[in-house]
Amino acid sequence: MKELRMLHSSLKRRAFLRGLAFGVPVAVGLPVLEHFLxxxxxxxxxxEALPRRFGIFFWGNGRGIxxxxxxxxxxxxxxxVSPQLEPLTAYKQYLNVISGTKVKLGNSPQGHHRGSVxxxxxxxxxxxxxxxxxxxxxxxxxSIDQTIAAVTGAMTPFKSLELGMSSKLxxxxxxxxxxxxxxxxxxxxxxxxxxxxxxxRIFTGxxxxxxxxxxxxxxxxxxxxxxxxxxxxxxxxxxTRVGARDKARLQQHAENIRAIEKRLGGGGTxxxxxxxxPTRPGALGTNPNGEPFEERVLAMSKVLSLALACDLTRVFSxxxxxxxxxxxxxxxxxxxxxxxxxxxxxxGQEQVDKSTVWTMKQFxxxxxxxxSAIEGDSNLLKQSAIMATSDTSDGSAHSVDDYPILIxxxxxxxxxxxxxxYKSAGENSSIALLSLVRSMGLQVTEFxxxxxxxxxxxxxxxx
Length: 463
Description:
With about 475 residues, the chain is α/β, with parallel strands linked by helices. The protein has helices at about 110-120, 145-150, 175-180, 195-205, 215-220, 225-230, 230-240, 245-265, 270-275, 295-310, 340, 350-370, 430-440, and strands at about 15-20, 25-30, 55-60, 95-100, 125, 135-140, 160-165, 180-185, 185-190, 315-320, 375, 380, 385-390, 405-410, 420-425.
């Protein structure tokens, strides 16, 4: 039997619906309701701006030899989506493309290590003893997401969320290739690959955040306690205190949570088990080329959009595939590892191109989930800035020239919408990082260190 209790006597902006599920405290964050906003829905009633979110979407091994497959032909406002960006056509107005920049780290020349650390932190890496590996390194400082989270994380229960889509990572060459989110040297933030575990972590830890007894969480999961049921009384009471539109939004919010619960194990296919236990009967068996990419992307996009809508976090990272890694993109008929294919030179470029197009299609799933989440007179995609990038431009040559950088979302009006294509004449790739940090409200005049340090941002894409 579930015990329900009311913990609110007043409706506050960052309210939580709370309850107990078999003794485990649960808290479901609320979306931004009209009740909290000013008359035109552009800010909170007290004048504070709607929250902005920052994210990273990262894939390994670059976009291929032919830059024209990624870079739009025209610049400025007249650009059209390139062949590799075609899956993102529906979100073109939210996209700002930066081409022509270069990684300018003088002390970190090693392959995928150099591009990864530069585009994620604007710093050189620290070379470590190889210990039998081809090379080993770690980040010299925090990645950009953790730089931002150090400020915004104080406002939310979760400082940041780290998601992973392919678990086929290079784990023997230090933290640089294994993680995309770093606190500093030898301190990477582990990605979560299981949508069910991510859901449990977000919605069963209480408003204070993730410091929950894992045994209690396991107990609740085993008893299949419903997070939504445990707060039903609180939800019903709240609906009587808001307007008609907010009531409809709360009901939709409840339906979204219920749909995720069903998808993650409350009936039908247990995606959580399939993702984390591929050898279990009925899942993917022992096929090493059978990662459930598309299923995982769909489930993760729903959980992530809920977490952002409820202001449980404002910073996230998605490692679709790792640096120098060999995921096999079987949904599009590819049987070889991605890193190996990139090093087949011209012979492998058709498959590299096909893989990049498909990866952008998966990125579009996340963008669609954010666009559909309404917040005031805006939506989560407009309120976000998400950098999509890789560890190289051309993986076959480990090139870090003409770097692939895509920024999706307007960050609450900081970036141009409709977006533009800015073609740089060889500027430092860190100009994008400085723009992104500023878009989140951090008052900084420079970003990066050593060869990655810049004092000018990508002003051409800023509104």
